[in-house]
Amino acid sequence: MKRIILTILLAGSISALFAQQHKTENVIIVTIDGLRWQEVFRGADSALINSKETNEKDAVRKNFWTANTDDRRKLLMPFFWSAIVQQGQLYGNRDIGSKDEVANPYHFSYPGYNEIFTGFPDPRMNTNEGITNPNMNVLEFLNKQKGFQGKVAAFSSWERFTQILNTQRSGILNNSGYMPVNVPSINDRLKHLNEMLNEVPHFLGDSTRIDFLTFEFAKTYMQQFKPRALYVAFDEPDDMAHAGNYKYYLDRTHQEDDYIRQLWDFVQTDPAYKNKTTLIITCDHGRGDVPLTKWRDHGKETPNSEQTWFAVLGPDTPAGGEMKLPTTTYHKQLAQTIAKLLGFDFKASAGHEVGDAVDSVFGK
């Protein structure tokens, strides 16, 4: 009996410690599907610009090329290389020895997103088909916590997130693909965006909408309803890479960076978010690099497509810029990191394996 009481007291003290050591009250998670670490940390690739993978080479050079790496990556992703590098942390620059990877062996989207949000590389999640994810994810976990019920929302260009996040079971608000936002009292802007879904061309197919709509839905919903956990999933860089269109891949990456900037600018002006919100940005998998045309591909048959990156910006994360750790970080660690930033222990409640948090995010 004494041992049981001691265990209960210890569990309570650990929960209290989690709650006391954080300033973060809200999280925004953004994923950019299939964006390589090479472009994030090096900027535009001259070999690809000068290859058959790039149309309108002069325009691409004008917009995204300079010989200096620091300047070049800032041309491509100015928000990353101003706000985040100065105030937050960036992981995965293998040129300085920083290694970030997915732990799953499949190196494509569904397994990657499962790993990010459930905290482990489940071998059953080895398809992009519409199977329902049986694993608890960290957004579902947050939606059960006091103060977060009904305050968790996910907006994604790809319709598959309905299954990845198991929104039927989890109960979080999910707006994916060409589904409208169907909640009471939405404002006129959200109503107009719902109408646009029936009018916009399906450039990316019938299962994936353009990222502009995903961004506008997420931003407008955030402004009206103030979710405490917001997930935004962009898709276009991966589509452009598979198409072998390096110009559009760079254009879309540059645009996603600006979408993220706009979300963060709103955070900095709204009392519900300012100085108490953490932004986490990452991808679901890497891409190949050798031979050159392998940049289009990823998967277990594509070497180096496990290589990834992530970035963190928020009140609990000391400014560290480009981080270099003695060990590799894995995306299976992100779910517990997200929960811990908010003062919760997802690992203790998930009912399955969950990777440890990335301690350096908290300055440890």
Topology at a glance:
Layout: H1 2-20, E1 26-32, H2 37-42, H3 46-49, H4 57-64, H5 69-76, H6 80-87, E2 89-91, E3 100-101, H7 109-118, H8 138-143, E4 152-156, H9 161-164, H10 167-170, E5 173-176, H11 188-196, H12 211-225, E6 229-234, H13 236-242, H14 246-267, E7 277-282, E8 310-313, E9 321-322, E10 329-330, H15 334-341
Parallel strand pairs: 1-6, 1-7, 2-9, 3-10, 4-5, 4-6
Antiparallel strand pairs: 2-8, 7-8
Tell me what you see in this structure.
With 364 residues, this protein is of the alpha/beta class. The protein is built from 15 helices and 10 strands. The strands form 2 sheets. It has an 8-stranded mixed β-sheet. Strands 3-10 form a two-stranded parallel sheet.
Features:
364 residues; alpha/beta; 8-stranded mixed beta sheet; two-stranded parallel sheet; 10 strands
Element pattern in H and E:
HEHHHHHEEHHEHHEHHEHHEEEEH
Structure summary, number of beta strands:
10
Average predicted local confidence, pLDDT: 95
Largest sheet: 8 strands, mixed
What is the end-to-end distance?
A: 36 Å
Low-confidence stretches: 4-11
- Please give the order of strands in the largest beta sheet: 5-4-6-1-7-8-2-9
Number of helices: 15
